[in-house]
Write a structure and sequence with these properties.
Chain lengths: ~170, ~170
Amino acid sequence: MSDFVHERHKPPRQLDRPRELVLVCAPMRSNVNLSRIARAAGCCGLTRLICCGPGRLDRKIARDAADTLEIESHRTLEPVLKKLRDDGFRLVGLEQTSHSHDLHQYKFERRTALVIGNERTGLTDDSLALLDDVVEIPVWGLPYSYNVATATAMALYEYCRQFPAG
Amino acid sequence: MSDFVHERHKPPRQLDRPRELVLVCAPMRSNVNLSRIARAAGCCGLTRLICCGPGRLDRKIARDAADTLEIESHRTLEPVLKKLRDDGFRLVGLEQTSHSHDLHQYKFERRTALVIGNERTGLTDDSLALLDDVVEIPVWGLPYSYNVATATAMALYEYCRQFPAG
């Protein structure tokens, strides 16, 4: 007899306070990636997802997160970043750049906007110029780059690890 | 001018020694999930992926990982787990169960087989009975469960965070 008995879809953790992490997506190529990111964000207890460009959620993939997340759509990213900066969010991009911090060592501020770039082109130079920090996830093997939704999941995990109660 | 200059697909980190983490997948419903898991495993520097059941990799999704990973296919999971146990691997399932460890606190052994269950049904009771530990990822919101490839990415990230050099 196993010690381990299934408890799938057990009740979620309660946060002591609402998450102040906002997820911001540049215009994406794939609604599948955007929808996978939304599902992960919902599971992590985020309340705001900002989507730039024409991308739309696929509810079969995003599941309930499509309803529980406050989803804001904007045409372009830069004005969104400026508004978030004015609202006191630290703007943290997820990208391989010349001055990226290793996500393993990076200490998130609680009030953070995590900025996700396009699958192919990443974040534009204009967007990068607005960021306070950029984090990247170490890669040890081929294909040398994580899928954007996979990398976002890892960054969400690291933030939640640092702020398990919100 | 931005401090942050794109360095996409920069050369990967070097491991001091090969990873001893083996990823083991129960029969999956979706080759897309299996292929996304393979891509993430390749990026994390894993060398072995064991796939049970009829699942096959989609190379458009798995990318180079389909070639660089040593991929072993088996009909059923239990004999694979017994062999890995005999080979000295700690068998760690990723599942919500009655005695799961919180992934945030779990200390991986270097020589670990991370066992991933089916999207819908998870790991069978017979498989759970063979495991040394089960880990689960905290969930704070709807839809109350991570996509299997998303959860696997988070677990791979946590293992690599604990063993950045292999």
